[in-house]
Amino acid sequence: MATNLQFIKSESISTNTTAFDITDCFSADYDVYEMYWTGNGSANVGDLAWKYLDSGGSVFANGNVDQANYRMRPSASFDEIRDTNSNTPRGIYTDSTDRDFAMKFVFFNPFSSDYKFALMQGMSLYGGKSIYVQKDTTVAYGIRLFANQQFTPVNVSVYGVK
What is the DSSP letter of 43? Predict the structure, then answer.
């Protein structure tokens, strides 16, 4: 696979929010994308998640994601989380004392009407690695990052892989 990253866009938000949309970042120009997310959660953020956006900016329907997450916790045993037909792909976990987070995603064929695949590795309170299968034939145009509580700031950079 080629490894040349071509910058597509970056966006930031500096006000408290529970959801942050990155629109028009997927197109027919690339089959593979890398996306980097960094930020900081509030004291109550525990779970960062994401969903694909369709051409109108709406999130994909619930129940169409299979995922496997491997959490590498410093104070307990590593554990796995597996979901089939999940509503929400999980990102990295934060907590009240370690709210900074960073995630790298690799998206495969998001602009296709076939299944979409993604990989994530990230860090915050836990390190983590995940794999996702979006079993939806809707073409993805963007991503929504969201949390159970407000978070700020968030910085996102999107690259196409040639």
Answer: T
Tell me: pLDDT of 6 over 90: yes
Q: How far apart are CA 79 and CA 87, in angstroms?
A: 21
Read off the tokens for 81: 């989380």
Q: Are 125 and 94 in contact (CB under 8 A)?
A: yes
> What is the predicted pLDDT for the residue at 61?
84
Q: Which two tokens stand for residue 32?
A: 């593979």
Looking at every residue in the chain, the average pLDDT score rounds to: 85
Distance CA 40, CA 31 (A): 30
Please state, for a pLDDT cut of 90, what percent of the chain lies above it.
45
Q: Where are the strands (E) in the chain, listed by range? A: 5-13, 17-22, 32-41, 47-53, 65-72, 79-86, 90-93, 100-108, 116-123, 127-134, 142-161
Cα 33 to Cα 9, 14, 107, 138, 157: the distances in Å are 11, 24, 5, 17, 10
pLDDT on residue 41: 63
CA dist list (Å): 111 to 33, 142, 158: 10, 9, 14
